[in-house]
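Final report, results section. Input specification for complex C-07:
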Amino acid sequence: MPILEHPAYPPATLLCLESLVPCRESQVSMLLSIFGERQQLSFPSIFIYGHTSSGKTYVMKTLLNTLQQLPHVFVNCVECFTSRLLLEEILIQLQNHSSETRRASPVPCDTFNDFVRLFKQALVLDRAEQLREMEANILPAFLRLQELTDRNVTVILLSEIVWEMFRPNTGCFEPFILYFPDYSIGHLQKILSQNHPPEYSADFYSAYINILLGVFYMVCRDLKELQHLAALNFSKYCEPVVRKEAKERDTRKLWKNIEPHLKKAMQTVYLREISSSQWERLQCEEGELGQIKGLSAHAHVELPYYSKFLLIAAYLASYNPVRTDKRFFLKHHGKIKKTNFMKKHEKTSNHLLGPKPFPLDRLLAILYSIVDNRVAPTANIFSQITSLVTLQLLSVVGNNDQLDGPRYKCTVSLDFIRAIARTVNFDIIKYLYDFL
Amino acid sequence: MSTRSLSKGCFVFKPSPKKRKVSRTTAYYFREGSSDLEDSELRFATCQSLQKQVKSETEQIEEELNEQLFDNLVSFLRRSHSAFQEKKTEWTCRTKSREIPTAALVLGVNVTDHDFTFRSLSEVLQNNVTPYIALLEAKDCPGIKNLMQKLLGQLMNCCIDVDSSEEEDYEHVSRSRVRCSMTTLINWYESATKRTDSETPGKKRTSSRHWQSPPVVVIFKDMESFTTKVLQDFVVISSQHIGEFPLVLIFGIATSPMIIHSLLPHSVSSLLCIELFQSLSCKDHLSTIIDKILLTTQFPLKLSEKVLQVLINIFLYHDFSVQNFIKGFQLCIVEHFHSNPLSVLCCQLEEAKRRVNSLSHNQCENVRRLPSFRRYVESQVSEKQIALLTVDSSLKEAVQKLLEDLNVYHENYFPILRCLHVFTSSLPKYPLGKQIRELHCACLENRVWETEEYESSLQLARMLNKSDLVTMLQKCVEILVSSPGREFDEIVEKLKEFLTQFQKLEEAYQERDESISPQKELQKKTNLYHLQKTLLELKESRRSKKLTKFEMLRFEVVDYIDSLVRHYLVPADHKTLHEIVYFNTASVLREHLNAAPRIALHTALNNPYSYLKSEALKSDGGSISNKAPDICIAYKLHLECGRLINLADWLEAFSTVVTAAEGPTADAASSDQVDDVIHARFIRAVSELELLGFIKPSKQKTDHVARLTWGGC
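Structure output:
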């Protein structure tokens, strides 16, 4: 029983379309009815939104490609980072449509005015979020393109965020809004199982997908990513079958074999700790995972001696209140208990509030008191501060005049600074107000 | 043009003059600055050739060090796209999403060295892999638009360079108007590869260097400095087109690869296929450089302990930059040849001997003035003394001999130093340092055998076990055999003898029936009383026990090593004529390399005499002289103020100081009204201080300025 019905298109095409867009039948039929028949004027603009990989781009592409009668242009807004590029891209694609034999020279088109003048039909803008950052007139103008050009044109905007975030202050033509809901686990199962490898039966593959979803569904609902993971790990799943240790029906045995493997994949490949090609090589060589360390295993950073102290000083300056400097860095500070000089708002941990900016002088003062031997304020020390900034370990706050006493923030984590402090035998915890 | 400066400011770039003129002027400056003109031409030439030698040597070392890393990268590039080309039809390849192959290249925090690495990397890639390389820097790419422009510019230029034919000229012109989009890039890539494919035998050589469809390599030199948005956009855009042309990214990372995850969200990093490559750590790098450059007899110039310490300290404490270390060494070379007239003799032995013969009388006097030479003269008999001090020819003869001695000393010094390092580097806690450079410094500083550390390391060496000792001796033999020194045959013989003795000992052990050792007895005892008793007995026996054969031998070996050290590792400044080949003015080097701008500024303003050298400014310290420049007076007065300075008070103090000299002559009229000229001078001094960054106008209080610096540095 075909779900899609439309007077303008032959039922064979519709059937074909239906098989290509599983689980999105209702949206497609809605779109088809909006487009109407060739001679009918369709809705000027449609806004489609939905989560990452909920099939927006794919559905639109297959829909427009399968139904040959819909001339269209498909543009990715990330790729066309200026309005000029965007408009020219559209025009070039249109030209290719109308005259495929000769490659027309690109038409220079700088403003929307020129565009309207040159514009001759459906137009799909993918990743439409980017439009918001272009000139103010682009988005409203696209929305009323039909009106401006006086032609039967529909502008379709695809986006991952809702329409409310788009609506400009000045008001504009409201598009027809269509929501693509997330695929459910059943949908995912159905879609993923559809594309099974030719060597194996569909049932076998679908059992595999079932296991895969069981492991990954909790963390990842991205169809593309799941497909990728399925392809990566399938050979491992087949292994017992290839080695004739298990039959295709032996689901339980296969599950026992694959499950720990998938869990490992979740911690490594999925997080891009190790790359997929490395993962594949590991599978082939049957090597242990220990051989290739993930990216985060290399968190250690080697720094010159004074850079380490500068960083420690910066950390202390960022997380200790100024008033406490006296207590930490003066020799005869007397006995001040934490409770005595703690103000009410300081009861919350400074580590929860994040780093606070501090002036250069305070940084140097703390540096002088935590380094054992005398440090001369040489050019090398100052340039080290700058290089810590370029390494993103410190950041400059407020980009004003350099002479005006620059202020910095320390951006490293507690674990990182503790590792650094350990290498120079400096007990940083003793100097932190939060851990007093 | 780029500037390296601590502060912001205007920089004037004069057009560089013609090359010929430059070379003339360096020689000219070299001559002009030196205190006396002895042999300055020759010194300059020697200096130049030595510089060149050092440069080529260090470059070669660096190439060798990077070789492994580059090989890995090239094989990664080879792998990255071949898989897809080979089995396009396979099921896994169709379903798997195509990721952009990405190499995360962790290079360490010594950012100044990266330039060289990237330059040689792109050279290697250009020679072996692909002509299409783009190097991107964060400062050129504040937005995706600039990035694409830069990328297209570099790629399209390089394609023209490969062909270097005349018909491409018009492309240059139109490049600025090319649409900077990925489509353009893809079209360009298609046409470029097609062109190289269609090129027939005539140009086969150039194209065969590269692979069938050469990948486009985009290198991000400083990953940390790129903004998140630019990177994300670029990755997203290029992942759309990854099927159409082979793109490979290389991220240059200074800190840790974690930065990728903090810069790119999961949705973007999942488009990448990241593999990690780590370069050699810069400390190892430095060790190699020191080992190959400083601890050889290859270069006549040597560094004294203090100078070496300055260079190493700058490296370890400040920048980790090997390039800067080499630059420092080169500065030492220039400084040595520039300041020391006798450095003309600092060259290979044969050449030096020849040069000795042609020394002028003045130079001979210079030699006589050397402290080490004076010591030498004093140790001679009186007739010889007179001859050395008065007759140039006998002096020259002596100098030739002494230079030869010095050369022999160096030839022996380094191998023995390495032998000693073999021993000390395996001792627990490393009393003489882990690295050979520390040992070298210790030996240069003073007689190493008189130090406590040496004593304790000998003691530790006397406790080494046999297998360690044997391997060390073997290593020493290897070092000595491979070194060119003349006197080592005997030493090698002796060491080999030790080795055979150890061998015999071992055989003897095996033959001997082992009685139950006291240790084993110990295990048998269960009674506490008995245990105590045996322990006491053990202690007694140990005290009185005769040394075993092995222990005797061990003592002998250590004593022998000790004698070698005493004989060969004499500090260089005990050697006559060491001034000629050792550069030892560490203070000059420190001044040049570890500049202290704040201190210099403070000295200039606080004590103008130190720079102006005018007698009138010589002051006894505390008081403020009115002869000093206005800015100095204003500066000294401001040092006495708090965070906010009242301008009126300051002006008053200023005018008091300035008019102090006139003192009695000043009339009453000026006392309540400040002179206009003084007022103007004050304002000028204050604005000069503001320009230097000592004060800034403050909005907190009217007629006040805020101090920006604290303390006397």
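Strands of chain A lie at 45-50, 73-76, 123-126, 155-159, 176-180, 358-359, 394-397, 407-410. Chain A has 18 helices and eight strands. This concludes the modelling results for the funded period.
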